[in-house]
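Changelog-linked ticket: magnesium ion example.
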Amino acid sequence: MSAENTPKNFIRQIIDADLAAGKHQRIVTRFPPEPNGYLHIGHAKSIVLNFGIAEDYAGRCNLRFDDTNPAKEEAHFVEAIQEDVRWLGYQWSELHFASEYFEQLYGFAVELIEKGLAYVCDLSPEEVRAYRGTLTEPGRESPWRNRSVEENLDLFRRMREGEFPDGSRTLRARIDMASPNMNLRDPALYRIRHGLIHHQTGDAWCIYPMYDFTHPISDAIEGVTHSLCTLEFEDHRPLYDWVLDNISIGCHPQQIEFARLNLEYTVMSKRKLTQLVDEGHVSGWDDPRMPTIAGLRRRGYTPEAIRDFCNRIGVTRADSTVEMGMLESAIRSDLDARAPRRMAVLQPLKLVIVNWPEDHEEILRGPNHPKNEDMGTRELVMTREGWIDRDDFREEANKKYKRLVLGGEVRLRNGYVVRADEVVRDEQDEIVEVRCTYDPETLGRNPEGRKVRGVIHWVPVPHAVHAQVRLYDRLFRVPQPGRDGNFLADLNPDSLCVIDGAVLEPSLGEAAVGERFQFEREGYFCRDTEDAPDGRPVFNQIVSLRDSWGG
Ligand code: ATP
Ligand code: MG
């Protein structure tokens, strides 16, 4: 995470120039989530950007909850968001809630009223909309726009005291109803909301400040130098600046917009993610198929891979949609370097070595990583009966088939070479057993004058760890879910495949929750937080070994 491997983006160039011009002593950024859902990979882009800048410039980055809409916010989201930011590897300089500033915000609203720059408006929400005009037509001024300062102060105080019902009045900025920028047509600064219990302020307030009023002031109070947000706020920047230009606050952060992250085959809006959870389309916010940080963590993603992904996609002002393959390739390269290798058989077929003595067990060792000796070895045990994968055996096959064929030889990984001699079938004519002979001269060396087709993985029957393995596919069937209407119609019905009868090598019996492995020839897997109902451990597929989407 040092400056050397973080690409210079346009925001860092602005900061460099500001520092060179002596504008700031110290860079201050913030990450400002609304606690109305869990963080997702899009938020990670903003987190890596904001915290990464603070780190690289020896500055500060605050975590600030933008909690001005108590109807949708909950305390448990506040907890989950902190956990996710920490897990991603960041520590905030200060933790704040915009609600801490409610009293100060009220004071600044009074200042605007006193300057004739804000007024209490009695129009209903529908009337406000009708008066606003359109992109091609100017708006009309509210009949309440020219109230006296005294009357406005009195009414605003009484709004706070709870005298008026929801929707009956708003406090509005007095800017310009003819502005081509709709955000400047006397935007609301405060609205009345009775009967809500705010997770931080309880029932202390019945008026709540709007985002566009709260955000610039919160930034300024915290001494933020660069307020980074996504492009949809570009049109709000004039209002951000207007608020700060018209109140007595000695700080004016610079708002800079960047393109939000869009990812194929998933959705990122919190409204849609909430719907997936609430309607049970997924098992929760941390379902391993979710694009949430909690989901990716449970799936087995590492914070390093997520940060690497965010740095690889870069920060620009051009909207784009990133291929899921980019995220997968980030975790794949991280795990390729770090994940210990293990053997797991997902579709077991029994192999019996007829020339192996009945109760004989031989301890073997396998390297934890083929390219990293420092990772050491683990114990394997070979027995007369082993499990191999159904896909690794055929009665007949041509030379291209590098696995076990009747009459042919393969090496059992880290063990001996075996030859398949005959098959045993059940009443349904299905092969249930392959009978083999092994060559005792082949541990760690090849037989002379015979060709071994390949190497396959295996698990000793008496010591197998029985597990449930969950394979995942994209949560949606199409790159842009909901493009043709209801996004739920685009859900992939086969996004979860549960394999109940998987068998794993003995060492995996000790795998800790969250521990990640490469199951050789199968993919990368992670022990789930919960066991199966029958007590067997569950392993989630993190990502396949190779990009099977050809992307
Ligand atoms: P939604 O619109 O789905 O509710 P949001 O953008 O309102 O999401 P916030 O909690 O307000 O969510 O976002 C906190 C910060 O994260 C904001 O600065 C926002 O710009 C940034 N952010 C949210 N989504 C993305 C994204 N997809 N890519 C980059 N930054 C994002
Ligand atoms: Mg928001």
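Closing comment: Example verified and attached. The pocket of magnesium ion (ligand 2) is lined by residues 34 (CB under 6 Å). Residues 347 and 546 are 20 Å apart (CA to CA).
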